[in-house]
User: What shape does this take?
Amino acid sequence: MKRADPPSPESLQLVLYPHPALKKTAKPVERFDDWLRTVVERMKDLMVEHKGVGLAGPQVGLSLRLFVASPEGKREEAVAYINPVLSDEHGSEEGEEGCLSLPDIRVKVERFQAVRVEAMDVTGQAFVVDAEDFPARVIQHENDHLDGILLLDRMSPMAKLANRKKIKELEERSQKPEARSQK
Ligand code: ZN
Assistant: This one.
């Protein structure tokens, strides 16, 4: 059986809800090679291009446990978290969140105020970060993507109702064959 070639990093694009990759549980990264390094660079580009503060593998159609994050939205400060594991969660804080895969939707979400994240860098070197407040929120949001969890799953029924038009538009847009934006 022939193994499918991984997609070229340059071809990666942001995928929107309800793309199936966003609902899958992502698999651990096993190879810390040039492909991975180029993918991470591409993800940082896409994050900044779309004015995000974080971007996870499933959001570019890759079902792999990795994300990039920069709470200030700056490329030079973006950190890649590969095979992250969260622990020592404590406190709770409500804050507003958006998601690049759910354009124009902003909702209040309750998150832990602080988390520890153990992860690997692109070379496979382990590191630990203790994050608080907004950086901790970004990490929890991106880590959710690796388990197929979206903001929609974290929304209150009220927020879902308030955003139902935008959610429906995204669902309908995905059903049109090759709906190219004309912008
Ligand atoms: Zn997101």
About this structure: DSSP finds five helices and seven strands in the chain. Helices lie at 34-49, 133-146, 151-154, 157-162, 164-175. The pocket of zinc ion is lined by residues 99-101, 141, 145 (CB under 6 Å).
